[in-house]
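Margin note: ligand = zinc ion.
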Amino acid sequence: MREACYCGRVGEVEDREPVLRASRTEALRCPRCGHLDPLPYLDTDARLELFEEAERRSLERLTEGAGTGRGGDRAVW
Ligand SMILES: [Zn+2]
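Resulting structure:
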């Protein structure tokens, strides 16, 4: 699902950062401007699904970032 933010960033909603409260995702944050979007226009099921996907991608990014970051430095120098 693609969507444009106020700041002009266009991308998949699932690529935004999940914001957790009480260990539950309740909004997605735009990585560029920090705008919080609680997705009020979606029904509960669709919203939960989207939040779960955003959490999955967020974890994936963390794992990938840690791997390429350190490994890359060593390989180059
Ligand atoms: Zn934004």
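Residues 2-76 form one domain.
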